[in-house]
Amino acid sequence: MNAPQRLIGEHALITGTAGGIGLAATIAFLREGARCTAVDLAPTLSPELQVLQAQYPEHFQYVAADVSRQDSIDAMVAAARARFGTVTTLLNNAAVFSLGPLLEITEKQYDVIFDVNVKGMFFVMQAVLRQMVADGCKGSIINLASQAGRRGEALVAHYCASKAAVISYTQSAALAMAPHGIRVNGIAPGVIDTPMWKDVDAQFAKAEGLQIGEKKKAVGLAVPLGRMGDPADVARAAVFLASAEASYITAQTLNVDGGNVMN
Predict the structure, then answer these.
(1) Where do the TM regions start and end (predicted)?
(2) Catalytic residue set
(3) What pLDDT score does 196 carry?
(4) Mean pLDDT throughout 66-95?
(5) What is the band of 205 on the pLDDT scale with cuts at 50, 70, 90?
(6) Whole-model pTM above 0.70?
(7) Which residues pair with residue 253 across a beta bridge?
(8) Biggest alpha carbon distance in the chain?
(9) Are the beta carbons of 161 and 97 closer than 8 angstroms?
(10) Tally of CB atoms within 10 A around 171
(11) How many Cα atoms are found within 13 Å in the side-chain-facing hemisphere of 159?
C-alpha cells in the first residue's frame, strides 16, 4: 500500500528550481500532492521542469523571476496566487556562490552574494508572509541556509556570512509570525552533490592549486557518513518541515549534512 500523500491541498512556492535542491524539492512536493509554483531566473523552463509540467499539468506552473528585485518578487507572488491561491509553503532556495582570498574579494562579489542570498531571501519571505497573514493562512516558511552559515571559512567569507544571516532571519521571523500560527524554519545542507558543485570545485581548484575534482572528492570523504549528500536528502527534510508532522517545530534550522555539524 502506498503511503498517504502529506501535502495534499498545499500550495508550495519554490525558488531556484532549475536544478539541484530546488528541482529535487519540486519533484518531492508534487509527489506528495502539493500544487507547485516553481521559480527560477531563466525565461523558459529547463528540460527537467518541462517534464514535470507534462506530468503534473494541473499542479505545476513555472514563473521566471529575479529574487534580487522587489518588482520581480511582487510579480512572482501575484502569479503564484493567481494560479493556485494563497501560498501555504515557501521553500526559499535561490542562492549564488563565490569564493576568494579575504584580501582580494571585491565589493561586486559582496553585492551579488548578498543581493540574492540575503536581500532576495528576506523580501521573498516578507512578500509571502504578508499574503499568509492577510489571508489567515497558518503556513510554513523554509529558508535554505548552509553548514557554511554555522562557521566562517577563510576563502568563503561572503557566502558564510550570507548563510549565517539566513539562519538569523529565520529565527527572528519565526518569533514574529508565531502569533499568526505561521512556522518559519531553515535547512542547513552540508556538501550536496548538485550541478553547482562543478563551479564550486573549479573555484576551489583555482584558489588552492588543486586538480579539478580533487576538492569535491575530499569534502565527500571528510563527511562522517563518508559521502556527499544527494539533493533528495534535502528535499525530504523540506517535505517534513512543510507537513503536519512538523506542526510543533519553528525557529529551527535543521542540519542535513551527514554529521558535519553537531548541535
Answers:
(1) 12-30
(2) 159
(3) 84
(4) 98
(5) confident
(6) yes
(7) 186
(8) 58
(9) no
(10) 17
(11) 16
Residues 125-136: what's their mean pLDDT? 98
For residue 200, give the C-alpha cell. 564550486
| Whole-number pLDDT of residue 1 | 54
Quote the CA–CA distance of 33 and 56 in Å, as a whole number: 10
Would you call 91 helix, strand, or coil by DSSP?
strand
The secondary element (H helix, E strand) that includes residue 236 is: helix 231-242
Q: Is 36 exposed, middle or buried (0-12, 13-18, 19+ CB in 10 A)?
A: buried
101 Cβ contact partners less than 8 Å away, ≥ 6 residues apart: 154, 155, 207
CA distance to 14, 53, 80, 122, per residue, from 119 (Å): 16, 29, 20, 5
* DSSP-derived 3-state class of residue 225: coil
Lookup: cell for 67 = 529574487
Q: Is the pLDDT of residue 148 over 80?
A: yes
Helix axes 70-84, 121-135, angle to 10 degrees: 40
Q: Is the pLDDT of residue 200 over 90?
A: no
Mapping DSSP to helix (H, G, I), strand (E, B) and coil, where does residue 77 land? helix
pLDDT (tens digit per residue) in 176-191: 999 999 999 999 999 9
Which grid coordinates belong to 226?
A: 563518508
Rg (CA), the chain: 18
Q: Which stretches of 105-256 are assigned E, i.e. beta strand?
A: 140-144, 183-189, 253-256
Report phi then psi at 181, rounded to 5. 75, 20
The pLDDT confidence band at residue 195, using thresholds 50, 70 and 90, is confident
Q: Which residues pair with 35 in a beta bridge?
A: 11
**How many of the other CB atoms lie within 10 Å of CB of 108?**
9
User: What is the set of domains in the chain, with CATH numbers?
Assistant: 11-190+230-256 (3.40.50.720)
CB 89 within 8 A of CB 142: yes
